[in-house]
Structure to design on (509 residues):
């Protein structure tokens, strides 16, 4: 009776404890918790960055984007996680080795009597061969052929998922470089033009005030004064629109590089590199794209990963062979042998599993056809991107040549207007209008050049070339930028282009 008196209070206490735990209200984050979370997130976003101490070149901008861009860092972490899961899954192929130790007790003696089978009379008095309190321990090893086969295919599948994560990382890095190329040259154009645009806007506003006074005082014919004001207002409107585009470009580049808010960003105003001239044939570009594009490689690995599911379904039809061995110890003093080992072999087969075989064959054919169709459709889209990229770059290069000619004409007109200016109001307004046209032409030229660089970046991306070194986290910005520059120059020299200034793109077929 004593153990029962002890057991009941323990059961009651456990019930009350579980009830109290289930009644606990959910914990709500406080404002202090939110502030701490924000502080930690900001530290993760900006805490490990090298400060900007000098004007940023294009290759340094690319290096900062690859090193600090949060999307790219996320893909790196996903790749590391996939690799860790692959390493973990490989251990599932090992046999199971289980060590156990414990203590057993009961409130009374275990025992029994025996009766005769024929006469049903008791032949032995009640006896026990087990102590009330005893220690138990053991070491067991078991291995299953079916578990081994499934674990093997799972490990192969995890390996394919590691490669898929690597291809996604490659794609993000290529997209980051493309976005940096587009934003950098627009931001550099903004850095060059914004001071002059602001200065001209101030002069234009003063000229508008002067034109209004001249109209009010009758110093100019009303129709002529209104025409000048209309022209100046149109120029101000266009300049304001272009100014917004320039500001957005700087903000976009800063976001790509993950610069902390309020950071000073000055771009290196180096000589403008000439536009590349493609020398490869279009069929060679298509071949490179089919070989290098991360999306195609990812689909190819996905097909192999899907095939592992089919192999697992087939493996489950195999007879299962199970082996086990164990070593045991029992402190029971009534045992003749307190230490013993045991071994066993078991073969089993689920016959009903064979009913799944036709469905597995059908699923295998459908899965393979679907994977192939998806990859072929993606390959066709890639080929289209290459051809469209070539055409887009062709048109963008021609637009740069046209913008150069327009800029030359507007620069000549500005020089003529400045030379012919006098103290008359109309001449001053004409100079301002000519300067406004000149700045708009400069903007259009900078925009055309940045669009050509962006078009080249899209073509570069459509081919699927990698430019980042294998190690990013371990390198500083200067080293990483130099590695990116060397890689790009080597690829361009060996596989794609030569450089030439001022010549429209010519496609070699």
């Amino acid at each position: 009776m004593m153990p029962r008196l002890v057991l009941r209070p323990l059961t009651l206490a456990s019930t009350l404890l579980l009830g109290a735990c289930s009644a606990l209200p959910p914990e709500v984050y406080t404002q202090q918790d939110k502030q701490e979370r924000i502080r930690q997130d900001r530290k993760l976003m900006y805490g490990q960055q090298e400060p900007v101490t000098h004007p940023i070149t294009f290759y340094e901008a690319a290096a900062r984007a690859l090193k600090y861009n949060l999307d790219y860092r996320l893909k790196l972490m996903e790749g590391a996680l996939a690799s860790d899961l692959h390493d973990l899954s490989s251990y599932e192929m090992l046999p199971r080795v289980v060590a156990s130790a414990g203590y057993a007790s009961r409130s009374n003696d275990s025992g029994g009597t025996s009766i005769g089978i024929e006469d049903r009379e008791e032949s032995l008095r009640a006896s026990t061969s087990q102590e009330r309190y005893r220690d138990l321990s053991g070491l067991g090893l078991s291995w299953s052929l079916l578990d081994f086969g499934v674990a093997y295919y799972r490990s192969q599948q995890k390996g394919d998922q590691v490669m898929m994560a690597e291809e996604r990382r490659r794609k993000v890095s290529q997209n980051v470089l493309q976005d940096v190329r587009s934003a950098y040259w627009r931001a550099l154009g903004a850095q060059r033009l914004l001071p002059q645009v602001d200065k001209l806007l101030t002069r234009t506003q003063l000229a508008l005030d002067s034109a209004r006074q001249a109209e009010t005082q009758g110093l100019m014919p009303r129709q002529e004064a209104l025409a000048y004001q209309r022209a100046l207002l149109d120029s101000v409107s266009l300049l304001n629109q272009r100014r917004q585009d320039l500001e957005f470009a700087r903000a976009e580049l800063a976001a790509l590089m993950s610069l902390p808010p309020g950071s000073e960003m000055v771009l290196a105003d180096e000589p403008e590199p000439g536009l590349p001239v493609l020398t490869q044939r279009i069929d060679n570009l298509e071949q490179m794209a089919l070989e290098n594009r991360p999306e195609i490689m990812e689909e190819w690995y996905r097909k192999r990963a899907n095939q592992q599911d089919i192999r697992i379904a087939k493996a489950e039809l195999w007879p299962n062979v199970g082996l086990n061995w164990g070593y045991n110890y029992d402190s029971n003093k009534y045992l003749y042998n307190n230490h013993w080992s045991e071994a066993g072999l078991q073969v089993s087969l689920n016959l009903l599993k064979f009913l799944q075989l036709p469905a597995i064959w059908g699923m295998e054919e459908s899965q393979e056809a679907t994977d192939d169709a998806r990859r072929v459709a993606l390959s066709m889209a890639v080929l289209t991107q290459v051809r469209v990229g070539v055409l887009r770059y062709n048109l963008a290069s021609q637009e740069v040549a046209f913008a150069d000619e327009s800029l030359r004409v507007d620069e000549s007109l500005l020089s003529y207007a400045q030379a012919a200016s006098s103290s008359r109001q109309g001449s001053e307004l004409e100079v301002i209008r000519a300067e406004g046209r000149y700045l708009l032409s400069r903007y259009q030229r900078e925009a055309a050049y940045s669009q050509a660089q962006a078009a080249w970046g899209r073509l570069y991306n459509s081919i699927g070339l990698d430019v980042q070194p294998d190690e990013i986290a371990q390198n500083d910005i200067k080293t990483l930028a130099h590695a990116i520059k060397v890689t790009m120059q080597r690829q361009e020299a060996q596989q794609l282009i030569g450089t030439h200034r001022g010549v429209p793109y010519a496609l070699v077929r």
